[in-house]
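To whoever picks this up:

The parser on our side crashed when reading a file containing two proteins. I've narrowed it down to the boundary between the first structure block and the second sequence. Both blocks are reproduced below exactly, byte for byte. First block:
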Amino acid sequence: VQLQASGGGLVQAGGSLRLSCAASRRTASTYAMAWFRQAPGKERELVSAITWSRGSTYYADSVKGRFTISSDDAKNTVHLQMISLKPEDTAVYYCAAGPAIGSSRSSYTYWGRGTLVTVSS
């Protein structure tokens, strides 16, 4: 399974971006799709996750109310809509897939290349 992430960029504080992650195929081992992020000097953290077919979702407290995760099952694609962006959202965002939603990196088997999100103040 290959994951292709896109949509990062530079945006001013208060702005919006939408990240997308396309999976080459769906299997039982990719039932959950997640977005992690890693800021310079910090650990990689789970931002949001979703299961296919409008299943469960998860949001980190720091992004609740600002980020929305959704899935397009027909296109094997997951989107992360980010609004009201803050400088502290600046990080490399990684798409990941695994059999179930989990908060640790080890819960996910497949990883895409990161996409950089920079929020200027």
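<<boundary where parser fails>>
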Amino acid sequence: QVQLVESGGGLVQPGGSLRLSCAASGSLFSINGMGWFRQAPGKEREFVAAIHWSFGNTYYIDSVKGRFTISRDNAKNTVYLQMNSLKPEDTGVYYCAAGRLPRARREDYAYWGQGTQVTVSS
């Protein structure tokens, strides 16, 4: 089993920044993919970014490229999502997920955190 705990959400004005953290614990030996997803009210959960736990390869949806950066600290078993130049459409609950490889499909992740709310509003 793998446990994931997100933190770092909050209320920020448009153009502001937030950094989300996801601390992983448990049986991590089979985990090579860590992802961030988000879900806005009334919408489906969508892929935001992913990183390969060992090699560090990163993947993003087009709408966040150049604004968001996913990174990891292997020593702390923690993944981060640095979000800059935030827009109102970035609002939603952000979920951390863990799976065998860094993919964009929800089905590829076996473990999920509880989510953290990000609200971008003036």
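After patching the parser it read the second block fine. Residues 47 and 106 are 7 Å apart (CA to CA). The chain has no helices and eleven strands.
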